[in-house]
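For homework, think about our next protein:
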Amino acid sequence: MGHLRSTRLLLRALLGVVAACGCGFPDRAGAQTVSEFTIPTAVSGPAEITAGPDGALWFTEANGNNIGRITTTGTFTEFTVPTAGSVPAGITAGSDGALWFTENRGNKIGRITTTGTFTEFTIPTGSSFSMSITAGPDDNLWFAENGGNKIGRITTAGAFTEFTVPTANSLPLRITAGPDGNLWFIEVNGNKIGRITTAGKFTEFTVPTANSEPNGITAGPDGALWFTEASGNKIGRITTAGTFTEFTIPTASSNPIEITAGPDGALWFTEASSNKIGRITTSGVVTGEFPVLTSSSEPNGIAAGPDGGLWFTEETGSKIGTLMPAPPAQPSPLVAAILPSSRSVRVGTTATVFATIINNSKSPLTDCRIVPSTFVNGFFSYQTTDPATNALTGSPNTSVPISAGDLQTFVIAILAGAPYPPTNVQFTFVCDGFAAATPIVGVNTLLLTFDANPAPDVIALAATVQDDGIVHVTTGSPPTGAFAVATDNLGSGDTITVATNTGTAALPIGVTVCQTNPTTGQCLQTPAATVSTTINSNATPTFGIFVSASSAVPFDPATNRIFVTFTDSTNTIRGGTSVAVETQ
């Protein structure tokens, strides 16, 4: 992260957006939209569900012995598990771009590609009755052996390791990757929350409510673990240090089963007995319980979808349901930015960027945090930084308050175990009780690429004449303006083509570019539509961008922008930056 020595450039990217957003506090009134889709296989017994790397939702059919797939528009595909009567239970997306699932009666771990090709691996312990499975921070898959009283690990090549839970007959049920780099799991009989390091060291924490029957567990956006208590009728929270808090669900005997972090920064959970989907904020307030359309359908698994909805299985209803949270009636009081706006790194290398959230209101906000809203098949974390020094502060994946009119800076880190094509990754920048910051491509999105081989990683930073992130095209004949771009290639060397575009906006402007002398700022060649040059590893070339306008360009920094891209010899974008543009 040494290539970013100040957040001053990052804050510049926000100035025009703040001025133009007209931000106010949202009205949280409005109806949630609940929909259902009937699974083709009757009485299929859908269990767990997860977001897949292909933009669809994948789920297990315990009774149907299938792995199901549903698009966000409701189209189903079903794939029959090779082992008959296997009772698929848990499912997760692996670091290799495939889906991994447990076979509760088949005593196997299954793998299915997004095109439907199966591979199965037999678990060493017989009658292990494996349940939930999750991708771990070590790129392996970790699963709970309900009958074997073990936590299992399997590599993407199919090699097993098993670790015996210290409490006998604890019935480990569900498991998730924690924000601390460990795996956290449920012990139903033991009434405990367990933690296991990737080296196999256990710690166990007893749930305060006796006989609570903990069930589902997930990592929350506040840096803690959140879990359901099926018999206790509560939602529990445990910090990574082992401190518990419990919150009673308003509906009695609701039988909460699974829980997930939502795209809105809250936690969402299924209530099997009351036939509802519940929502709880990170401050412990249950803000809603929403009835499932089909009566007595026993909602079970739940996951956040790529469309912003909460997708859930209906175990006895043999349906997949989705709940779309109500949109806010007014804009968010938040604005956010990311710098740099592009990273291109090798698989297994962590991509880091800096981010800033501004509270553009007259009231303090709490539980401010960052959640990825675009699917990235890897591990995500964020942590606060000192705005003056960029030094890390606080704890990873921990929400913070932001005072009225103030800001907080963060570092975002993403690690992937498989190639990831160039994608504009969106993040949810949100504080408790209010809508998230509006996504703006080039301002608070990240063009992210994970490559299997070494590749260029051009960090590009733009500087405008007035140091405000806006190129002001002056009047005259013709109107002209200019800005500069500095770069630092943190990856491998290659021939790079520098070009510009205006995104989705059709603007009456002409743009040319040249490489410049880093000392004098003078062009090294006549400005043209593009320029190609070799940028070696650790090289820091600079460029000048020249803008002319044939007619007026209004001040709209969220839409009217000039993007500068750096494309390598394989025609892959390896860097980028942008500025707002207006005529004056």
